[in-house]
Amino acid sequence: MLNILKITSFTQLLHTKNHKICAKVQIMSKKLTKRSEDYSKWYNELVVKADLAENSGVRGCMVIKPYGFGIWEKMQAGLDKMFKETGHENAYFPLFIPKSYLSKEASHVEGFAKECAVVTHYRLKNAEDGSGIIVDPDAKLEEELIVRPTSETIIWDTYRKWIQSYRDLPLLINQWANVVRWEMRTRLFLRTAEFLWQEGHTAHATEKEAIEEAEQMMNVYADFVENHMAVPVIKGTKTESERFAGAIETYCIEALMQDGKALQAGTSHFLGQNFAKAFDVKFATKEGGKEHVWATSWGVSTRLMGALVMTHSDDNGLVIPPKLAPIQVVIVPIYKGIDQLDQISETVNPLVKELRSKGISVKFDNRDTHKPGFKFNEYEMRGVPVRLAIGPRDMVNGTYEVARRDTLQKETVNAEDVVAKIEFLMDDIQKNMYQKALDYRTEHITEVDSYDEFKKVLEEKGGFISAHWDGSKETEERVKEETKATIRCIPIDAKSEEGVCMVTGKPSHKRVLFAKAY
Fold this sequence. Notes:
By secondary structure, this protein is an alpha+beta fold.
């Protein structure tokens, strides 16, 4: 706490003490449950206290607050740039999908049927007995509409009109949208009934081109998650049981959270000709024939926000990589009286302008309604990568106190060196966060050869477990039922290795990665 200012009256003294007490209470209320005590409770508290999101009046749906949305906007911007660099364009398709569309691709409807929200009527009216508003029974839709759980069906119905010839291919479209999957057990960002995402849908003339597209987008996702989010991922393919409904192959990136559970961070699907055949999307070939196109779809969602929180944050609050931080640098003045604040402002304003000219987002927090101690705690909770503090002594010495959020280290830096220091920290914090997460993941990939060893590691250590599997759905389901662990992926870079399934003893040709997951 700062030294108490000189007080000229009892009333001023009382006001000052009350203000300090209120600020202290606010700071204390920001304390989180420790991760070691209850990881789930820690996560739920942090999302709310860091002002990322909150539950809404609609069951299972969330309100993303400005600070949380600021992070999502940076994610959008980074991904959107990467999509466009690989030739994709943005479009928008309807929120509502006719029920008959879903029934055209059997495995697709089976995969989503239990999660669909259905619109049956189009009008309300006042009840005749004055009891309130009711659904007008005379306003029943001829065909029910599904609130999109994903857009393959409405998009492929549209593509039938857009694609006539090989000249129309490839068709590379992405849309930023919201979708609804009626989840019964929800958690902010990780699993909500409505969430934000992007979904790419592409059409190609050949199978080879479509597979290359699906693999390319998996690599784009991995690039973004590792280099923007500082989250290491493992690239792989899903087992048949875990594939997207209607896909021939699902490519994925899997991340590991601090509690040893995996999180699917993105998927890309090779759909073959399934949807093209279901919606009769054909093209005239160069040779004059007619063929169905080959398709992909791919997407990531606000689930990435949950991955960001759970990979990096600590018992003090969020830790955000500089590339995604809405505020990369915050400057907190320490002063006594308005004159000192004015002097500090004159010193800080040129620095703010210089940092912004270099593309660094900076906030000078000159609010006089909160004490520096409160502000320090607030920005620590919100994960701002770099904090500068400047007071009267710093003004005399020509220095700033510079604190980095990832390590909580502080140092005094000369004013003429502070811009270079901040530029260094933007890069160094990003690298350090990635390396810390990578080291954790490396320490939590364990090879096992027996089912007993598998269960022991799963219970005592967690993380990814590399084990042989006989390739059968029955064995996969047995492991899931008995341990709650699933096969997260068959790693792309997995080498052929002769062995036997840890459960059945049957032959196996490579290891797969198991884990408990979100």
